[in-house]
Amino acid sequence: MRFEHLGAQPRIHTTAVVAPSAVISGDVTIGAHSQVLHGAVITAEGGAITIGESVIVMENALIRASATDPVHIGDHVLVGPMASISGATVADEVFLATGTRVFNGARIGERSEVRINAVVHLRTVLAADTVVPIAWVAVGNPAQLYSPDRHDEIWDAQKELDFPGYVFGLDRETPDLMVQLTERYGRSLARHADDTRLD
Hints:
Trimer_LpxA-like_sf, Gamma carbonic anhydrase family protein, globular, Transf_Hexapept/Carb_Anhydrase, alpha/beta
């Protein structure tokens, strides 16, 4: 399903294949010979999404851009089932395994692998040829890699990255943080009420 959102329509190369149950919304460009499988959602929420050539976006993956963080995915990238990319840059020949999470402002270098259920945190930079092991967390610039049992160290490293401030423009110490966050984000998402289905 393709949708016009905020006046922008998806542009899909004639050799790309998009499954009928995938959702492509807004300012999205999909390159030659790319494949978007069933249940995938690619949604440009005010920022552009560019997907290169011979990219495979597998079942139920989510790719989301924001007004402050567009998405760029290079050529020959595999985005695994249930993976999530929000406002990030992914270079050529990257493997994002099942269930990986890549957050706003992150940059993943060429030929890197982010293995099953691993996380590349907010504004984290992975050098070319980096491997993030299964379920590990990459944080910082340059990235430091942490096993999932090191929560306190992960929190210390990512706290200064300021997720609510960077993504939502809100101070983490705001007493009603979640009230303000959900109301602000909800207003932004409500713009989908004016979307037009194109197919």
